[in-house]
Write a structure and sequence with these properties.
Largest sheet: 4 strands, antiparallel
Structural class: mainly beta
Number of strands: 4
Number of helices: 1
Shape: globular
Oligomer: single chain
Radius of gyration: 14 Å
């Protein structure tokens, strides 16, 4: 995903009802456990030419994919 694509997706959620909601990164480990980690910052790694999302410590988390709004 490019920065332009990410910004477009984030802008689609830009509304008063969601503006104060916490942003988390969710992922599944290789042993199939779900985790979430709170996004702390976004930085650009000039050497690797990639944007990086810095997050806090992951905690185990189960999310309901049927409730996701895209």
């Amino acid at each position: 995903m490019t920065l332009k694509e990410l910004i477009a997706k984030l802008n689609s959620f830009n509304c008063e009802a969601l503006e104060d909601k916490e942003v988390v990164h969710c992922f599944v480990s290789t042993n199939a456990y779900g985790y979430k980690e709170v996004v702390r910052d976004v930085v650009y790694d000039a050497k690797k030419q990639k944007f990086m999302i810095e997050c806090e410590n992951p905690e185990q988390y189960h999310w309901d994919e049927t409730a996701l709004v895209k």
